Amino acid sequence: MKIEFYKYQGTGNDFVVLDNRNGQYNGLDAAQIEKLCNRKFGIGSDGLMLLELEDGYDFKMVYYNADGKLGSMCGNGGRCLVRFAHDRGIHSAHYRFIATDGEHEAYIKDGRIHLKMQDVHAVESRDRVKILNTGSPHYVSFVENVEGLDVLGEGRNIRYGAEFQAKGINVNFVCPHEIGIRVRTYERGVENETLSCGTGVTAAAIAHSSVDGRQELAIKVEGGSLAVSFNRINEQQYEDIWLIGPAEFVFKGEINC
């Protein structure tokens, strides 16, 4: 099968994107998707997305992890797909699309994609750790300094530990930074550290919050800077959550798979 693909990235979180509005890529299987995402034998990416049609929405987002399996919500992927939709002629002042975790809204302002995330209704607190779901499950660990941390080793130990091995979990390490907080993330499905994780920085910002009310927090990741704004109702409830940052076209091409 000849595939016309597009490569997009959001703060270094990169994706293969396919325009599947006519259904031509419905037959892709997990092995093909894994090969397309492979950095040695394929295009190379942290995941693959399909842009599809859905009644009542501007588009539908279908996301696959780099291992070829259907994934949960990807925040940076969602931002990149909004940019891709715009580049492909789907223009709207305020986008509405559907993803695996439900409905999302988005808009483009000053070159940045603002993506509305799902509300959070539960945060589990442990010693210097918080666990919550921001469209994907996240383990947020507060550390003194992330720069010298073995994110791959430590993240893998938690993700494959007895508690989380069955379903997996994304693992974020967080410390203070001059602009707000610094976050590094080990992502399940990629099974490695990524340069950025949208649902991860969203989880980290919420986990870092301690005062009720409207907040916006700047976040430094390996691949650049993001922001998260939200309304903290109490320590368990967070609403009107927005992930904000750049999403850029990298290149396009064709590949046989």
What key attributes describe this structure?
17 strands, globular, Diaminopimelate Epimerase, Chain A, domain 1, 17-stranded mixed beta sheet, 257 residues, alpha+beta, 4 helices
Describe this structure as you would to a colleague:
- Helix 1 links the parallel strand 2 and strand 3 (47-52).
- This protein has a 17-stranded mixed β-sheet that branches.
- The model has no long low-confidence stretch (mean pLDDT 97).
- The chain contains four helices and 17 strands.
- By secondary structure, it is α+β, with helices and mostly antiparallel strands.
- The N and C termini lie close together (5 Å).
- It has helices at residues 30-37, 75-87, 151-159, 198-208; strands at 2-10, 13-19, 47-52, 59-65, 95-99, 102-109, 112-116, 123-126, 129-133, 137-142, 170-177, 180-187, 192-194, 213-221, 224-232, 238-245, 248-256.
- The protein has two domains: 2-103 and 247-256, Diaminopimelate Epimerase, Chain A, domain 1, CATH 3.10.310; 123-245, Diaminopimelate Epimerase, Chain A, domain 1, CATH 3.10.310.
